[in-house]
Each structure stands twice: as C-alpha cells, then as structure tokens.
C-alpha cells in the first residue's frame, strides 16, 4: 500500500517517523509530509496556535501538494489527531483513495460528499475530549450515509494521543493493540 501519513498539531515528531517506519517494516510505502515546516511542540495549545496561525486553507493546500504526486497510485490516507482530519478531507475528495486510517481524530464532512464503500478505520481514546461520544455517533452516521465502510475502535482510559511515547497521553498497551488492528486493516486493503 501507498500511505500518506499526516502529523498532529505537535508537528512532525519522532513518534510520527517511528509510526511511518513501522508501516514501512510491514511492507508499505509511506510518505510523511511536514505541514509545519520543521516546527514542533510539546503542548497541544502551542500546536493549535500554530495550526491557526498557518490557517486551514494553507494547511490543506500543503497537504494536497504533498499527496498529488502519488494520488494516481490509489493512496491510503492516514493521520494523527489534526492529521487525521486532514487525511479524512483528502480521502473523501480523492476518488482513487484506497482507504482511510484515522488515529485519534476525525473531521467535519463536506455537504453531499459521497464515496464508494471507502474502507475507514478509526482508533480513538474513550473518553476523548476532542472526540466526544455524541460527535462520534453523528460522524459515524454521516460517514455511513456518504458511503464509507467504517470501523471504530475505542480504548478505554487511554489519553487522546496515546500512540506517542513522548507525550503524557502514552498508553503502551492501547498503542500496541491499535497498531495490530491497523496493520491488519492495511493488509486487507491489499487484497
């Protein structure tokens, strides 16, 4: 699989590179664009301020430019938290998208978006202050209505960005379970 993996508001940190290496070790080709031009943060608040400073339109433009050279191949879009929202936006707008792997985040859906049974897998903490139960229920229904084939995995007691070992949310057990399920999902897309 060809995978376009987007970072969270913390920027392109070592944990994102490690995730890309894990995917590569499983036989996938992975691209990890740096939407923040080398800037990283330990704090969610600083990261959100950076996201807002750059602006949604510019970040989306950067993401599209990063994916464009590879989109003809049929990409799987993936991302962490904010990066998941970017991945979702691109996947739902790319008729050649092969799949969508969301880690810790979702996004609003554009009106009248439609896909042809796009495989989607979401991994999220339970509870998660950024992905509330009500939001996830509405998101799931909208994704299904749009034509996506959606699976949601919840990890009770994990923090929001629980797959990043350098952040306070780190949960080794939840992270390993997430990667086992995600790698199986990606393997199934090859068939």
UniProtKB/TrEMBL annotation:
SUPFAM superfamilies: alpha/beta-Hydrolases (SSF53474). InterPro entries: AB_hydrolase_fold (IPR029058), Dienelactn_hydro (IPR002925), Dienelactone_hydrolase-like (IPR051049). Gene3D superfamilies: alpha/beta hydrolase. The keyword Hydrolase applies. One of its GO terms (molecular function) is hydrolase activity. It comes from the Bacteria. Residues 3-187 form the Dienelactone hydrolase domain. Keywords: Hydrolase. This is Dienelactone hydrolase family protein. The lineage of its organism: Bacteria, Bacillati, Actinomycetota, Actinomycetes, Kitasatosporales.
